[in-house]
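Sequence in, structure out. First:
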Amino acid sequence: MAKEKRLGRGLEALLGISGTAAAESEPVNKTEESSTQPDGKIDITKIVPNPFQPRKVFDEAELEQLAQSLQVHGLLFPIAVRHVEQRYQIVAGERRFRAALRLGWNEIPVQFCEADDRQMAELALTENIQRKDLNAIEKAASFANYLETYPGTTHEELASRLGVDRSTVTNLLRLLKLPEQLQNAVCQEKLTTGHVRALLGLENEREQIEVAAKVQTEGWSVRETERFVQDVLQTGRGESPKNPGEHWQIVDQDGETRAVPRQSEQVQQLENDFRHCLGSAKVKLVQTNEKGKGKLTISFANHAEFDQIYAVICKSSRAVG
């Protein structure tokens, strides 16, 4: 029996490509439309968003930065689309599509590929998870919607198809048990997933909301929140941290929590400057001592993002040299 293809590797897996950027290669699976119309530019008004796109809100500032990057560097790689009736649905590249609309483009380079509805739903999830474009609540809602659309799918099966751990699926789905008020706080980045995960241990929504309010107003770390909840569960009464807010616990890409000093406004501005220069790349700047020692981390999610960062940095380097 042939092994079922999983989409954990995103667009590369859908197009049957390995070892190179999907956008750099010709797709293996071509639609009927693509047999008569080769990959190239098409009328941008004939393109519609992916109906299975889990992201409902697109950051306006990031879209503006991406539009500026497109205006300077052009579109390095085409967006992927499938032909449906008289339109073309986006398979991957919706942010680039939206940025091109902002610039008033009449045409946009595309690559045709074949995907059924289930593949579209899985691919949209996979691409956003890999790019870290979705917040935890959006991911959880997308997982829940997928499981409702395809009943009988287990958490383990969904995780396997997306190329993530089963615990990732299960833990994120638990967040949907939170009051809507706290789910919104996560979406607005007022609380981290580490904070609200700790609050799930409390017995009722009223307690969760009350403790969440203290977390936000007093700046509790995740560890301080976890300790408070444990005290409530064991003794019925929690003790507020003595010096909260000295550090803020954040959740990294592996789901683990770590403590970092609060960023100064100067560091935040420097990170924004780097993001603007590098086409909205994920940038983290950390200063480790008062003498100026630190670390600058630039993250990329795929070959296209790497090539864009490489072009900006190396072009600047050659110009200086």
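Second:
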Amino acid sequence: MNDPKIVPQHVAIIMDGNGRWAKSRGLPRIVGHREGIASIEKVMSSAGSLGVKILTLYTFSTENWKRPKAEVDALFTLMEEYIDKKADKLKRDNVRLSVIGRIGGLPERIQEKLSRLIAETSGNSGLVLNLALNYGGRTEIVDACRAVLRDVASGAVRPDEINEERFSEYLYTKGLPDPDLMIRTSGEMRISNFLLWQLSYAEFYITQTLWPDFDGAEFEKAVKEYQDRIRRYGG
């Protein structure tokens, strides 16, 4: 690290390439997804040791429902396994779990397990693991607009009180700072409907590395490049 004091407070990651990783090895896509979970563990460890405060992972998008049902079902099974197996470790490691997205659209069993683990880790003061589940950036903005309109109609807020700061309070990420750094694996050059509002001034880091091959060392490379940049915020 160039300067340990210049560490992104909030890192968002588009974890891309699980399917391609598996295909290149002649393996089922679900094997790639399982390996991708192992990468999450490595990145969380690295992020915590570097002093990153929030890690937002694009885990399941609103568009992912278009995938074959067997793959979607397998993804939720893996998610359930992760929650069951890692709950105690998250608590021991002082990690606080957070979730953003239309959580009510997830399978009920997943909702229940997530709600329980969110409550059980709510007092933790270490890394915030923020999972974007059934998440879409456009959907988030639409939901925020609907909430604003409801409050205006009820008289809870006046239209002239809505500015960027106030609008941010209606987003799923209320209470979280915007990401400083956005990482995308697999080399794709797009943000795929991820945090459209929040990524306005984030630094982007694109790597050809597929997500199952992305480990702590790769994460440190991304942070080092972030440290080498000068953030101007349009100034």
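Remark: The two ends are 26 Å apart (CA to CA).
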